[in-house]
Amino acid sequence: MNTERSAEYFKRAKEMFPGGVNSPVRAFGSVDGDPLFIDKAEGPYMWDVDGNEFIDFCCSWGPMILGHKHPKVLAAIEEAVNKGSSFGAPSYYSLELAELIVQNHRFIEMMRFVSSGTEAVMSAVRLARGYTGKSKIVKFEGCYHGHVDHLLVKAGSGLATFGVSSSAGVPDAFAQETLVADLNDVEALEALFAANAEDIACVILEPIPANNGLLLQERSYLLAIKALCEKYGSLLIFDEVISGFRVGFEGASGWYDVAADIYTFGKIIGGGMPVGAFAASKEIMGHVAPLGAVYQAGTLSANPVAMAAGLATIKECLSEDFYQNQGRRTAYFTGALNDFLLENKYPIKLVQMGSIFWLRFAEERISKASQIDPKSMQYFKKMHPLLLENGIYLGPSGYEVGFVSSAHSLEILDKAIETFQKCFKEVLG
Ligand SMILES: *Cc1c(COP(=O)(O)O)cnc(C)c1O
User: Fold this and answer.
1) Mean pLDDT across the chain, nearest whole number?
2) Please, where are the H alpha helices in 82-208?
C-alpha cells in the first residue's frame, strides 16, 4: 500500500500538533503505525490522500450512522449554511431537533445543546451536583466520559476508596471527589454508597460500555444501580454519547427499559458536526441557568449548521424499521465471522449489540475492564495493518468498537467478511 503522502503530512503534522494529531487515539500509537490522512468519504467508503480505498467501520467513532455524505444530511447542511453559519441567537433548527427527540424518547422532557460529548458530561455532572447539593461522584473502571477533569480518574490502589488521577494536570483534590467502582459488581457499589452515604451527587456510567471493549451489562445490574441511587438520594446519569440513537432511538435506556435521571448525548446527535446535549425531566433541567442556579453556556451551542445536520440524521433514524435493519445487517456480519472463527477454533469472538461490534480476543464473556488481557492486543496489532492493506478501516485500537452504518449494504458486508476471514487466517494460521 502506498502511503507516501500520508507519511509526508504526518511528518509535518508532528511539528504542528502534539504527536501529530488533534485527538490522541488518531496517532495509531497502539497499533504501532502511522495515521492515514483522509481525503474524502462517501457512503461506507473512505479514501486517503494517496488514493487508497477503505470500507470504513470507524464511522468517525460513531456519528456517521447513515454513512458518509448522506444526500439528505448534505442538503440540510447546504441549506443551513446558505442562511449563515452562526448567529449567537436562537434559531429554528435546534427547536425542531429538540422537539423531535423529546417526542420520541420516553425519559426526556427538556435538554440543552452543547458542542461535544465532553461538554455534555461536564455540564450534566455540574447539574447533578447543583441539584443534589452533594459533591462526590461515582464512575466505573472501563467507562469513558470524555476528558473532563473529575472523570479522568481511575481506581486508587489498596484500601483507598477515592480515585487517583489518570492524567497529569488533574489535581488530587478533584480526583478525590470521584469514587471508582468495577462494572458488574453490585456489592462493591453498595459498599461505596454505604461509606459515602451523604455525599454522592451522582453515579455516571455508559449503560452500554463501548470505550474499553464492548462490556455488556445485565438489565438487573442497571436496575440495582438505579435502586441504590434512589435509596441514597443520588442522581443516575446515563452517558449515551455512543449508545444514544445507536442501538435504538432511545439508546440503552430504551433497550433495557431503564430510565436514568440525566442523559448525555453526542456523536450521532450532530450527524458528523460538533454537537452534544444533556437532557432530563423539566424538574431537573429547571436548575440550569437562566432558569436555575447551575451555570452553563456556549458561544457556538446549537450552531444552526450543526443542528441541521443532526436534525436530518435523526429524522432518518426515525424512519420505519431503521434500527431493526441496522441490527439485522450487523448480526449478519458478526454471525458470519463468528461461524468462521468457531469452525477454525480461533479464540476470538465478535461481540455485537445493535450496530456496534467489538473484536474480543478471548472466548469467555467480558463484563469488566480488568478481564481484558492486555497481551491479547498483540493480535489486534497484527490485524489492523493487514486489514488496512486489504481495504478495511477500523479504529486504531483493540479497545475500540466498530460501527455499521445504514450505507453498509449486505453486499459490502460480504466483501468485508471475506477480507476479515483472509486476515484472521494470516494472523492466526
Ligand atoms: C465520545 C464519548 C464522550 C466524549 O465525547 P467528545 O465529543 O469526544 O467530547 C463521552 N462519553 C462517551 C460515552 C463517549 O463515547
Assistant:
1) 96
2) 92-103, 117-132, 172-175, 186-195
Q: Indicate the residue type of 400.
A: E
Q: Clarify whether residues 237 and 343 are in a common domain.
A: no
> How many domains does the structure of the chain reveal?
2
For 22-38, give the DSSP string.
SSGGGG-GGGT--PPPE
| 239 is annotated as an active-site residue | yes
We report the CATH number of the domain holding residue 170 as 3.40.640.10
pTM of the predicted structure, to 2 decimals: 0.97
- pLDDT at residue 159 greater than cutoff 60: no
Are 295 and 384 part of one and the same domain? Answer: no
Provide the pLDDT confidence category of residue 156 given band limits of 50, 70 and 90.
confident
- Ligand 1 centre and the CA of 240: distance in Å? 9
pLDDT, tens digit, 9 for 90 and up, residues 118-153: 999 999 999 999 999 999 999 999 999 999 999 999
How far is residue 177's CA from residue 135's CA, in Å, rounded to a whole number?
7
The verdict on 33 and 80 lying in the same domain is no
How many CB atoms neighbour CB 364 within 10 A?
Answer: 9
Question: Helices 92-103 and 304-317 meet at what angle, rounded to 10?
Answer: 30
Q: Which of 60, 61, 125, 145 to mutate to test the pocket of ligand 1 (most atoms within 8 A of CB)?
A: 145
Contact 4, 50 (CB under 8 A): yes
Residue 288 forms beta bridges with which residues? 294
